[in-house]
Amino acid sequence: MKQPRQRRLRSRLSTASIYAVLVAGAALTLAPFLLSAMTSLKSARQLAHEPSLALPDPVTLDSFRSLFSEHSFLTPLAVTAQVTLVVLVVQLTCSILAAYAFARLTFPGRDLLFWVYLATMMIPQVATLVPLYSIMVSAGLRNTFWGIVLPTLLGSPYAVFLLREYFRGIPEDIVSAARIDGCGPVRVLRYVVLPMSRPIIATLAVITIVAQWNNFLWPRVITSGEQWQVLTVATAALQSQFNGNWTLVTAATTIALLPLIVLYLLCQRQIVSSISLTGFK
């Protein structure tokens, strides 16, 4: 009788320890975001005279009003949304077509071309920054919308790799049945492969949106002024201009964070489904 009780006790202690570690990790991860949101709801006077962890009392939205009324924060928000939408649609389209060709079509040098393309993931962004900037300046695309989006528009090695592996996991019998029914490569992609790949496409859409929404280095290099300023660059400029007014800076970061939180809540089931289906555990 003592052994089963000891085993149950050890099992409960082990489970409790695991949950304690997970809770601690979640707290450490979420704490900066919660602190930023709390700070954005405080007045500058309250932030200066009270501890940082004190709750906002009273809650004020003055920092948010100031962002849109005095600092034209709506323009970077609109520019970031446009850049993200265009890159999402075009990059996903190009990545799907390339991944389908690498996974399901046969042509000379297919595998070699794929691995060479995949090897470009190993090149750090800073190594191509100066040549890419020179190309954009020569093409007259500095400080333009297309100058921001073109470097990431025509596909992503990571997206192509992930989609290729997923497409290769689709049963060959289903694809063969579609071909017997008279479907060509385009119709197989449209009516068979894409409907079965919604989870992984949704996951890549979320990854692409987050990457473009948070992109800082390239927009900072290729643009100047406020006309094509994205959220990250606008927030960094705001921080340098108003270094003492942290309520204004945290209000900007909170606004930038909210759309991503909503996006994750809407797509979390698709993300979990894609992880389980692709075998990444």
From TrEMBL:
Where does the ABC transmembrane type-1 domain lie?
A: 77-267
What Gene3D superfamilies does UniProt report for this protein, alphabetically?
A: MetI-like (1.10.3720.10)
Q: Which InterPro entries match?
A: MetI-like (IPR000515), MetI-like_sf (IPR035906)
Q: Which UniProt keywords apply?
A: Cell membrane, Membrane, Transmembrane, Transmembrane helix, Transport
Q: Which is a Gene Ontology cellular component entry for this protein?
A: plasma membrane
Transmembrane parts of this sequence: 12-35, 73-100, 112-133, 145-167, 188-211, 246-267
Question: Where does it localize?
Answer: Cell membrane
SUPFAM superfamilies on file = MetI-like
Q: What is this protein called?
A: Carbohydrate ABC transporter membrane protein 2, CUT1 family
